[in-house]
């Protein structure tokens, strides 16, 4: 019996480079998404996130490397209706209603969702008769989501999708996204809300300086950045030098006579502190995704952590 070849990944960026004059926005970036994955793209402002999304959507051409969606050129996949996108720079269309806009977009796809279903997923059935150019920022954001969803794309690309949404709207948005992903769709989203990435993504990809610096689950990223924080008060006259030699310790920060250690093995670190009679006002807490993100995108990086190390 002949085995069928494995389907190509939904997204495959390989050693992609994009320059704007003397500025290299994306510098040899690799990114692969399997069909059905939900992946978060994190990075500081200017890290290359928006350019990466533009490259994979075929909005700009790479100067080097290869970009493919479902084994074809991005523009081919987009023209075939396999991709939906919600981008930050989209502007309100004047003098049309929400229903008219979403219906028009649906007509550009070969097998779109029913317009009422797209409006329901975006949480805006009550806005169907409203003019798009008279909506609030949060309402307009949800219209952009309906536009991205109505084609029933296999790949959904979302750039800061919950910006301008209140807490209730953000919760409803992620309820819809989980339902959409469960149907086998691939979702890639960028966000500045790290808790959203941790809660809703199968994987988190961190980019910095136009490159992938980490790729894994939230738990894996926290481990790569030093999975636990151990803090103690230093004795009068005690310096931090010896703390760097404690088992498991990856980094030490001292503020106001209190040392905070990032450690891979908090048990071993605390036992060693006890052996030194150095436990004063002990605090042990798990590292947060914020801690991991700051460590991974600091100038020194996470002590050499790479994408391969956090998978």
List strands and helices in order, with pairings:
Elements: E1 11-20, E2 23-33, E3 38-42, H1 49-56, E4 64-69, H2 74-79, E5 83-86, H3 98-106, H4 115-121, H5 137-149, E6 155-159, H6 167-182, E7 186-190, H7 194-200, E8 203-208, E9 211-216, H8 218-224, E10 228-233, E11 249-255, E12 258-263, H9 266-275, E13 283-286, H10 289-296
Parallel strand pairs: 3-7, 3-8, 5-6, 6-7
Antiparallel strand pairs: 1-2, 1-4, 8-9, 10-12, 10-13, 11-12
Helix pairs in contact: 3-4, 4-5, 8-10
Question: What would you note in describing this structure?
Answer:
- The protein has about 300 residues and is an alpha/beta fold.
- The protein has 2 domains: about 10-220, 3-Layer(aba) Sandwich (Rossmann fold), CATH 3.40.50.300; about 230-285, Alpha-Beta Plaits (2-Layer Sandwich), CATH 3.30.70.
- The chain is about 30% helix and about 25% strand.
- The protein is built from 10 helices and 13 strands.
- The protein has helices at about 50-55, 75-80, 100-105, 115-120, 135-150, 165-180, 195-200, 220-225, 265-275, 290-295, and strands at about 10-20, 25-35, 40, 65-70, 85, 155-160, 185-190, 205-210, 210-215, 230-235, 250-255, 260-265, 285.
- A 6-stranded mixed β-sheet has the order 5-6-7-3-8-9, with helices on both faces. A 4-stranded antiparallel β-sheet has the order 11-12-10-13, covered by helices on one side.
- A hairpin with a 2-residue loop joins strand 8 (about 205-210) and strand 9.
- Helix 3 (about 100-105) crosses helix 4 (about 115-120).
- The longest helix is centred in the middle third of the chain and has 16 residues, at about 165-180.
- The chain is elongated.
- The model is unreliable at about 300-310 (pLDDT under 50).
